[in-house]
Every structure is written in structure tokens, then in C-alpha cells.
Amino acid sequence: MSYYTVSKRTIIALALLLLSTLTATNALAQNRRASLVVGEEATQECNVSGKVLLQTRTDNNHGRIKVTFKHNQSEYIVYTNRAGYYEIPLKTRNYDISAEKTMYLRSDTLGFHVNCPQGDPVRVLTTTLRSGDSVDNGIIDLDDLNFITAELGTECHFLVFEPLADVNVDCKINILDLALVGGNFDLSEPTPWQSPLTSPALSLRAESDSE
Fold this sequence. Notes:
Blueprint: H1 8-43, E1 45-54, E2 66-71, E3 74-79, E4 85-91, E5 93-100, E6 103-104, E7 107-114, E8 122-123, E9 127-129, E10 131-133, H2 142-149, H3 175-183, E11 191-192
Parallel strand pairs: 1-8, 1-9, 7-11
Antiparallel strand pairs: 1-4, 2-3, 2-5, 5-7, 6-10
Helix pairs in contact: 2-3
């Protein structure tokens, strides 16, 4: 019968090897669990809501304003109701947001983070679109002033009336429209969104659009 003698040094080496293997296995399992959590968060969806206003509009008739959330090459579009509110379901990601409407300068913000691990609603603070881009070229300049000046004195009940020159939308093209253009003169799009971008998670339900 043969007997093999195992030295203490060999036993210690085997124990260390076993411990190292167990540590590596536990680390791999933790990484897998973390990957699953990240994947769950990436697919979690929640309602993102906010409000976009138009400069010079003081009533609840801001019209339909286009709001776009862009992630990489994907775009998610929603339109506000007449009071300026919108709500859209989005996943946990970073988005570039833009709000736009004819006659107004586009407003943008980049890298807005939608985080809804529990599906809680996310609120985007209000932004206001600057008025006066009557020729719709992305800048408020002499072209807009000349365009409005050519229509001075006309009203919406006239046979010929140019609504794009009616900056404050009061059915009259007069010095008030020129003053608004002068106040925003040389501004160009995109104008910055209001900051800070987020407030406590509050659901701001979009009112139903009667259109």
C-alpha cells in the first residue's frame, strides 16, 4: 500500500486557490445582478410632463406647440394643449428637448435626464418661446421689422390681413408688434430652456385639448 504525504505548504496553496476561485465567482454573480438591474431601469417607463408658453400670450390659448424629446436617432414628439401643457411616456434615458412653433424662436435644452426607477412622474420646468420671428428664419432681425412695417395699420377683419405680422396676436398690426420685435432684436434660436431643469416629481396632467 502506498502512502502520500501532503505538506502544510501544499495545503495552504490549495486553500488559497479555492478562496480565489470563490471570490471570482461571487464577483461575477454580482456583476450579472447589476447588469440585470441596469437593464430593468433602462426599460422602466414613466410620464414626463411640463408646460410651454408663448411670449405675449396671457390667456389659455397658446395653440399647439411641438415638443420633441430626442435620444440618439430616435425622436418622441408631443403637442401641447391650448393651455400649453403636455405629457408623454418616456423611458429612463438622457434626452435633448426642443419646443417650437411658427413665429417664435425654438427653445432647447440638452441632456435632460429622465430617471424613473419606480415609475414616478417627472416634471420639466416651464419654458417660454420668444416672439417676433415673423419670417420664420430662426433669428429676429431687420427682415422681421420690414415684414411687419409693410402691414402696419391692418386688422384681422380687413379683406387683406397678414397674421404672421401680428406678433402679439391681438388682430391689429401696430407699434406694439414692432416693440416686441425690438425687445427681442438680434436673438436667434435656439434660446435656452429655463434652469434648473427639474423640480420634485409631480404629475402635471395635461388638460384635454378641445380641438
